[in-house]
C-alpha cells in the first residue's frame, strides 16, 4: 500500500514525519513491547530530529525511549565524529537530547577502514537486535526512514552500483564511483520487509526524479522505485517544491 502526502515546505514535511514516529512508536510498544526504527541522513531528517527532541522535552511521556531501538539504514565510510556521519547528525540533533539508553542505539561502525568488515559487523548487530535465525531471514522494522537523492538513490543504493541488485545479504559495503567512496547500506530485502517505509522528499531538485519514480521511470535508473514493502506501508511525504506538477494533479 502506497500513500502520497504533499505539504507546503520542509518544516511541514519534517513535522509530519515526527508525527508518524510518535504514533508508530506508541502503537508498536503497545503491541509488542518495543519500537524498532532506522534513521537516515539529510536535511529533512535533521529537522525532524530537532522537532522530535523539542516535543520530547516538552512532554517526557511522548515517547517511551527506553523501549525504542535506533538503527541506521546507511552510513558514510567515515568515523562517528566526522561532519558527514549520519550517526553524528542524529546524535547531535536527537539522540543526545532524549533519555534513550546508550545500548538502544546501534550505529554502523564505519571507522573500520574496511567497509566490508563494517557491513558484516552491522549484519551481526541486526541478528542480535532482531534475534534472526539463518542468513536468509530479514528483520522486520516497525519503521524505516528514507530520503531520495536528485539521482534517484535511496539509503546508499545508487544507480548502477552492485548493492541495488543484492538480494541475499542484509547489509553490504557499496562502492559509489560518483563520490569515489564506500558506503554501508541496508539492501532492498531489508527495506522491503519493514512494517512501514517513510520517504521524505524536499526541494526543487527532486522534481524530475520524483516524476519519473511516480511514472514510468526505470528502477535501475531510479533505485528508490525498488522500495515496495512486501507486507507493509509505503508513505511518501513531499513538499510542493519537489512535487512540481504532482501537486496540481492531486489538488
Structure notes:
- It contains 8 helices and 9 strands.
- It is α/β, with parallel strands linked by helices and 251 residues long.
- The chain has a single domain, classed as Rossmann fold (3-Layer(aba) Sandwich).
- It has helices at residues 10-32, 43-58, 86-93, 115-130, 188-192, 207-214, 240-243, 245-249; strands at 2-7, 35-39, 68-72, 74-76, 143-147, 171-176, 181-186, 196-201, 233-239.
- A 6-stranded parallel beta sheet has the order 1-9-8-5-2-3.
Q: What is the CATH architecture term?
A: 3-Layer(aba) Sandwich
Structurally, the number of domains stands at 1
Helix-strand category: alpha/beta
Shape: globular
The CATH top-level class label? Alpha Beta
Alpha-carbon Rg, integer = 17 Å
Number of helices: 8
Enumerate the spans where pLDDT stays under 50 for 5 or more consecutive residues: none
What's the SSE pattern?
A: EHEHEEHHEEEHEHEHH
SS elements, strand count: 9
Strand content: 15-25%
Mean pLDDT: 97
Strand order of the largest sheet: 1-9-8-5-2-3
Q: What is the assembly state of the chains in this entry? A: single chain
Largest sheet: 6 strands, parallel
Helix content: 25-40%
The CATH topology: Rossmann fold
Amino acid at each position: 500500500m502506497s500513500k502520497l502526502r504533499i505539504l507546503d515546505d520542509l518544516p511541514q514535511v519534517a513535522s509530519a514525519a515526527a508525527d508518524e514516529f510518535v504514533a508508530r512508536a506508541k502503537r508498536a510498544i503497545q503491541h509488542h513491547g518495543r519500537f524498532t526504527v532506522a534513521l537516515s541522513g539529510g536535511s529533512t531528517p535533521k529537522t525532524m530530529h530537532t522537532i522530535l527532541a523539542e516535543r520530547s522535552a516538552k512532554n517526557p511521556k511522548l515517547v517511551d525511549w527506553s523501549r525504542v531501538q535506533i538503527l541506521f539504514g546507511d552510513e558514510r565510510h567515515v568515523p562517528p565524529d566526522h561532519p558527514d556521519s549520519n550517526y553524528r547528525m542524529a546524535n547531535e540533533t536527537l539522540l543526545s537530547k532524549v533519555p534513550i539508553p546508550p545500548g538502544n542505539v546501534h550505529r554502523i561502525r564505519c571507522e573500520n577502514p574496511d567497509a566490508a568488515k563494517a557491513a558484516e559487523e552491522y549484519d551481526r548487530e541486526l541478528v542480535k537486535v532482531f534475534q534472526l535465525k539463518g542468513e536468509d531471514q530479514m528483520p522486520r522494522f516497525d519503521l524505516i526512514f528514507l530520503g531520495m537523492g536528485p539521482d534517484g538513490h535511496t539509503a546508499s543504493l545508487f544507480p548502477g552500483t552492485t548493492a541495488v541488485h543484492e538480494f541475499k545479504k542484509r547489509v553490504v559495503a557499496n562502492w559509489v564511483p560518483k563520490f569515489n567512496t564506500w558506503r554501508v547500506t541496508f539492501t532492498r530485502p531489508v527495506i522491503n520487509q519493514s512494517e512501514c517505509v517513510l520517504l521524505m522528499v524536499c526541494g526543487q531538485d527532486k522534481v524530475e526524479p520524483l516524476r519519473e519514480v511516480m511514472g514510468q521511470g526505470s528502477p535501475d535508473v531510479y533505485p528508490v522505485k525498488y522500495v515496495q514493502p512486501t507486507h507493509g506501508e509505503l508513505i511518501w511525504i513531499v513538499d510542493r517544491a519537489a512535487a512540481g506538477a504532482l501537486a496540481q494533479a492531486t489538488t
